[in-house]
Write a structure and sequence with these properties.
Elements lengths: L31 H28 L5 H24 L6 H25 L5 H8 L2 H12 L6 H20 L7 H27 L4 H26 L7 H29 L1 H6 L3 H13 L6 H22 L6
Length: 329
């Protein structure tokens, strides 16, 4: 989802339910070279999104969390609006979708970023990335709860396994003792739940428009929600202490992780299909743990590694039934 959802706006995927008789549109024709380039670029974006956890964690030493998020998402949203106007010829939304998109943006980007960026002050970049990596399971649970997806034994087992992995990740740091570390990890988990609600409740609305158009407007709606607190934080901060590295961090998060990352991923979905791109989203959490160890000096705990693997196992188990061939009647 947009932590890196912070990967600011990963492709929005509806729950994997295909109505009977629904037409599946074929992928556009592309040369083998174009397909390889699209996949290579998508992998690059996953590395950029992984690096964003580290970049934001480092930048918070100089800038307040919500102020930083407000600036970077304002830049990213405006750039996506410009790109949408160039690519699609217009940027507007029908009147019936204005309020739903605004609410989705408020939850999926506004509230999400307030929680995630603040939580990053009290947790490690590695833990944050691994916890955000559990979003597919949370999305599945929300979708089942609201009736847009069906409950099954595979999904229940997958969810249980992933939550065991989450427990291992959270306990790998400062353990389960009450304190900043635990509070930050739990706040990150609530942020991931916000993204799960964004995807599950928003799927019918978001499917009516292109991912580029909906991401641009939901990001700007979320920025409007963050702006009052963000501006207040920036007004209270001593901005004279911000180094060029802080400015580069905003540029990285807004231009690379936000605007460019979304454009590349949308093109990858167009050429390769959503499944191949979604499968790559297992990469950012693992890469973020490694990058945080290299650039921030964070310790890689065995519990983190085990927990991350268990989370991925749970996600794979939950998706297992969808990959079984259907019996022909």
């Amino acid at each position: 989802m947009s932590g890196s959802r912070d990967q600011p706006a990963p492709p929005v995927q509806a729950p994997a339910v295909r109505p009977a008789g629904r037409r599946v549109h074929p992928l556009p024709k592309a040369s083998p070279r174009e397909l390889r380039l699209a996949e290579f670029a998508a992998v690059g974006v996953m590395a950029i999104w992984a690096g964003n956890f580290v970049v934001v964690k480092a930048a918070l030493r100089e800038l307040p969390p919500v102020g930083y998020a407000s600036v970077r998402f304002l830049i990213a949203g405006l750039l996506l609006i410009v790109f949408c106007r160039w690519r699609e010829g217009s940027v507007g939304l029908p009147r019936r979708d204005l309020l739903p998109v605004a609410v989705l943006g408020a939850v999926g980007f506004g509230l999400y970023q307030v929680l995630w960026s603040t939580a990053l002050l009290h947790s490690t970049a590695g833990n944050s990335a691994l916890i955000i990596g559990s979003t597919p399971i949370l999305t599945m649970l929300v979708a089942v709860a609201i009736g847009s997806d069906t409950f099954s034994r595979a999904k229940a087992v997958g969810a249980l396994v992933s939550f065991v992995g989450l427990g291992l990740v959270i306990g790998a740091g400062a353990g389960f003792s009450l304190g900043d570390h635990l509070a930050g990890d739990l706040m990150t988990l609530v942020a991931a739940l916000c993204w799960a609600c964004y995807v599950s409740f928003g799927a019918p609305v978001l499917r009516r428009h292109s991912p580029l158009r909906t991401s641009a407007w939901t990001i700007l709606s979320g920025t409007a929600v963050m702006a009052p607190l963000g501006l207040w934080q920036l007004a209270q901060a001593d901005l004279s202490l911000v180094t060029p590295a802080g400015g580069l961090a905003i540029a990285y998060s807004a231009l690379l992780a936000g605007a460019l990352g979304n454009v590349v991923v949308f093109e990858g979905i167009r050429l390769l299909g959503p499944t191949r791109i979604t499968n790559l989203q297992f990469l950012p959490p693992a890469l973020a743990v490694i990058l945080a160890a290299i650039f921030l000096g964070e310790t890689i705990h065995p519990g983190q590694v085990a927990g991350g693997l268990v989370i991925v196992l749970g996600i794979l188990l939950a998706r297992r039934e969808g990959t079984r061939p259907r019996r022909l009647s």
